[in-house]
Write a structure and sequence with these properties.
Length: 695
C-alpha cells in the first residue's frame, strides 16, 4: 500500500463514540457518511452497520475497499468502567505500593472526603520480585527467578490473564524485565505480558508503572475485539489493510495496536484534531481552535500551522472526571486537548442550591436523551436543542430517526423547569447557556495553560452537536469567525482518512548539555528512528518515511520539562545551536530564559511518519434542487424570546450563497445554527464560514 494508492482507492473510516458510531467513505472523489447509535455491548455490530450503510450508498462491496481505518473508545471505556482483564503485576521488591502512593499529590486540597483513583491491579496481585538495577544501569541485586515461580502460582489461582512487569530503572536496562517475562511465559503459556521497558521506557516509575498496568489491563480485550472485527470484515470480503488510529494522531497496523493498545485511548478525538487541522490548511488558517462536540463530551484543541498541540502525558479514568491529577497517568504520545462532559447526551439537573448543572453524566446511546424515545426520562442537551427549535424532530439524522418533542418537554419540565419556576423552553435555554459557558471556560483555561491567545483564531466546529453551539461559544471567547467543514457531523471518521501512518518512540536519556557527547546522542536517536521506521513500514510497506526528532529538556534543578524540536544530526550543528533551540522554545512557553541556567535533556523521541494522503476532492455541491428557505421558530437566548429563523438544506446551497442570521443550515448528521448578528457563506470547498457582523 503506497502513498499514491491511498488516494486512488475507496477508503473507509469508522469511529466509535460514546453515543454514535460514525462512518465516512471516500471513493472516486465523493464522500459518503453515516451515523448509527453505538452498540456498547458489541461495538463491532455498530461498526458493521455503519460500514454497510455507506457502502450501500456508494454502490460498493467490502471487497472494493482499498483501506479501512478504525478508531474506538473501547480502551478508554475499559479503563473508566473497570471492565478489563484480570491483571497482575511483577515489581521490584519493596515497591509494590508505588501505584497507590503515586505522586503523593492531593488534586483538591480542601476536599476532606477526597477519592483517589484505585490502582488497576489490586495489592494482592502486585507481587514482589527480588532484583535491582541502579539508575546508571549497574546491577545491584540479581533477579531471583524463584520469586517469579511463586507469583505464577498466585496468578494462576487468581485467574489472571495479563501481567505487567514493572521493575525499577528498567528504562536504562530492561534485561531483568525481559528475563522475568520469559520465565513467567514458560510457567503460564498464553498469558499476555506487558513490559514497562517497552511500553514507556522513561524515568518516573509511577507514570511508567501506571502506563504498563493500563496496557496489560486492556490488552486481552482489545486483542479479542480487533481479531473479531477483522474476521468479520474479512468474512464480508474485505481484502485490504485494517489500520488503527492512535492517540497521537497517526495510524498503525493491527499487530502494533494489539501490542500497545494503551495508545488507542484517545483515538477518536485525535481523528477529530486531524480533521480540524486538515480543514485549517485547506482554508489557509494558521491558528484555529478545534471544537469537537459529540454525544458524550466536548473536546477543544489548539492547532497552529496545521499541527495540533501534542503531549507525552495523559490522564484517563479520573475519579473526578474533569479534575487534573485525579486520574491514571499514561505516558504515551497524545494530541493535547481539554475534554469536558458537555455533549448532546449530557444530562441536565438542578442541584440543592438551585443551580442548573449539565453533565458529566451522559444518556449515551441507551437510553439516550428523552427525545430519542428509547426510555430516557432525564433531559439532555439534545432535548434542549429540540425545545429551542434548533433541531427538527422530523429531519433529525436525515429523517431516519424521529425525535419526540413531547417527551423532551416532559423531561425538561420535570427535572429543570419545575425547580426554576419557568417554562420548558426557558429551562432549555438555561441548559444550553450553562453548557456553552462551560465549553468557553474550558477553552480559556486551556489557552492560558498553553500560553496562547484565542481572540484572533478561527473555530473549526464538528461533531453532531458542535455546529449548534459554536456561535455562542465563539461569542463568549470573542472569536469572530467559525468554520463548519463538509462532513462535520462525522468529522473524526473523516479525520482518520486524512491521517498519515506514524509512530512515535521515546526513551529516557539524561544528560547535561555542557560537555555532552552529541555524536552519542545522535546514535541513541538513530536507534529510536530505526524502531519507528519498522513500525511505519509494517503498516505501509514501501513508504518514504520521514523523521521528526525532539527532546524533553529543562534547566538543571527544575521539576518540569518542555518539548524541543531538534535537527537530524546534533553533532553537525553543535551544542550552541542546541542550547539556542531550547532557549527559543523556553521563551515561547515562559516568556523568558534563565541566564545562569544550564539546560539538560531528560528524554528523547522520534516521530516516524509516512507522507499524508492526498486530499480527495470534496463532494460536489448542489446535490439537492435549490428550494425556497423554510422558516421555523427558534428561541433566541440573548433576547430570551422566540424569533423566526430561515431554514436551509446544506445540499441545496450554491457556492457563494450568503445567509444572514438567525438561520439554520441542516444536513443529515448535524445542523449549523447562525444566530442574529452573524452571516454564513458557503465556500467553494463546501465549508460554511460564519462571521460576526460588525456593530
Amino acid at each position: 500500500m503506497g502513498h499514491t494508492m491511498r488516494s486512488s482507492t475507496a477508503q473507509l473510516g469508522v469511529d466509535i463514540g460514546g453515543t454514535f458510531t460514525d462512518a465516512a467513505l471516500e471513493s472516486r472523489g465523493v464522500r459518503y457518511s453515516a451515523k448509527v447509535l453505538t452498540t456498547h455491548d458489541a461495538p463491532d455490530e455498530g461498526v458493521m452497520a455503519a460500514a454497510r450503510q455507506v457502502l450501500t450508498a456508494a454502490g460498493l462491496q467490502f471487497g472494493d475497499l482499498g483501506l479501512v481505518i478504525h478508531g474506538t473508545t473501547l480502551a478508554t471505556n475499559l479503563l473508566i468502567e473497570r471492565k478489563g482483564a484480570p491483571t497482575g503485576m511483577l515489581t521490584t521488591a519493596g515497591h509494590r505500593d508505588a501505584l497507590r502512593i503515586g505522586l503523593e499529590h492531593r488534586f483538591d486540597l480542601y476536599d476532606l472526603a477526597i477519592t483517589l483513583p484505585e490502582p488497576l491491579v489490586p495489592r494482592a496481585l502486585r507481587l514482589p520480585v527480588r532484583e535491582r538495577i541502579a539508575a546508571d544501569g549497574r546491577v545491584l541485586a540479581p533477579l531471583v527467578e524463584a520469586d517469579i515461580d511463586v507469583a505464577a502460582r498466585r496468578f494462576e489461582e487468581a485467574g489472571v490473564t495479563s501481567v505487567a512487569v514493572c521493575f525499577l530503572h528498567s528504562y536504562v536496562d530492561g534485561a531483568h524485565e525481559r528475563r522475568a517475562a520469559a520465565h513467567l511465559a514458560s510457567r503460564l503459556p498464553g498469558i499476555a505480558i506487558t513490559l514497562s521497558c517497552e511500553i514507556a521506557p522513561e524515568m518516573r516509575e509511577f507514570e511508567r508503572f501506571s502506563t504498563a498496568c493500563a496496557n496489560a489491563y486492556v490488552q486481552p480485550v482489545i486483542a479479542g475485539y480487533l481479531a473479531r472485527l477483522e474476521a468479520r470484515l474479512r468474512a464480508e470480503g474485505m481484502c485490504c489493510p485494517l489500520l488503527l488510529m492512535l492517540s497521537g494522531g497517526g495510524l498503525t497496523d493491527v499487530n502494533t495496536a494489539v501490542r500497545a493498545p494503551v495508545r488507542l485511548v484517545e483515538s477518536g478525538p485525535a481523528g477529530g484534531a486531524v480533521f480540524a487541522a486538515a480543514a485549517a490548511l485547506a482554508h489557509g488558517f494558521d491558528e484555529v481552535i478545534s471544537f469537537d462536540m459529540g454525544g458524550t463530551t466536548a473536546k477543544i484543541c489548539l492547532i497552529e500551522k496545521g499541527q495540533p498541540q501534542t503531549s507525552r502525558l495523559f490522564e484517563v479514568a479520573r475519579a473526578y472526571r474533569f479534575k487534573k491529577g485525579s486520574g491514571l497517568p499514561l505516558r504515551i504520545p497524545v494530541v493535547e486537548m481539554v475534554e469536558i462532559g458537555a455533549g448532546g447526551g449530557s444530562l441536565a439537573r438542578v442541584d440543592t442550591l438551585g443551580r442548573v448543572q449539565v453533565g458529566p453524566d451522559s444518556a449515551g446511546s441507551q437510553p439516550g436523551p428523552a427525545c430519542y424515545g428509547r426510555g430516557g426520562v432525564r433531559p439532555a442537551v439534545t432535548d434542549a436543542d429540540l425545545l429551542l427549535g434548533r433541531l427538527d424532530a422530523k429531519s433529525f439524522a436525515g429523517g431516519r430517526m424521529q425525535l419526540d418533542a413531547a417527551a423532551a418537554r416532559a423531561a425538561m419540565e420535570a427535572h429543570v423547569a419545575a425547580a426554576l419556576g419557568g417554562s420548558a423552553q426557558a429551562a432549555a435555554a438555561t441548559v444550553a447557556e450553562v453548557v456553552e459557558e462551560a465549553m468557553a471556560a474550558a477553552a480559556r483555561v486551556h489557552a492560558v495553560e498553553s500560553g496562547k491567545r484565542l481572540a484572533d483564531r478561527v473555530i473549526v466546529a464538528f461533531g453532531g452537536a458542535a455546529p449548534l453551539h459554536v456561535a455562542a461559544v465563539a461569542k463568549r471567547l470573542r472569536v469572530r469567525r467559525f468554520l463548519v467543514p463538509p462532513g462535520a457531523g462525522v468529522g473524526s471518521a473523516i479525520g482518520f482518512l486524512r491521517a498519515a501512518v506514524a509512530y512515535e518512540v521515546a526513551r529516557s536519556y539524561h544528560v547535561r548539555l555542557d560537555g555532552a557527547d552529541l555524536a552519542r546522542i545522535d546514535t541513541a536517536f538513530d536507534i529510536l528512528a530505526d524502531e519507528g521506521r519498522r513500525v511505519v513500514e509494517a503498516a505501509e510497506p514501501g513508504a518514504l518515511v520521514a523523521e521528526r526528532r525532539s527532546a524533553m529538556m529543562r534547566y538543571v534543578g527544575q521539576g518540569h520539562e518542555i518539548a524541543v524540536d531538534l535537527p537530524q544530526k546534533l553533532a553537525a550543528v553543535g551544542a550552541a545551536a542546541l542550547k539556542s533551540s531550547f532557549e527559543t522554545r523556553y521563551r515561547e512557553v515562559y516568556g523568558r530564559t534563565i541566564a545562569t541556567g544550564q539546560p539538560e535533556i531528560l528524554s528523547i523521541s522520534v516521530l516516524a511518519s509516512a507522507p499524508p494522503p492526498d486530499a480527495l476532492p470534496q463532494p460536489s455541491r448542489g446535490v439537492l434542487a435549490p428550494d425556497a428557505p423554510r422558516r421555523r421558530e427558534v428561541f433566541d437566548s440573548l433576547r430570551f424570546a422566540v424569533g423566526t429563523a430561515t431554514v436551509h438544506a446544506r445540499g441545496a446551497l450554491e457556492v457563494g450563497a450568503a445567509i444572514v442570521g438567525p438561520a439554520l443550515v441542516e444536513e443529515d448528521e448535524t445542523t449549523t445554527f447562525v444566530p442574529e448578528g452573524w452571516t454564513a457563506t458557503l465556500l467553494a470547498t463546501g465549508a460554511i464560514l460564519c462571521e460576526a457582523i460588525d456593530a
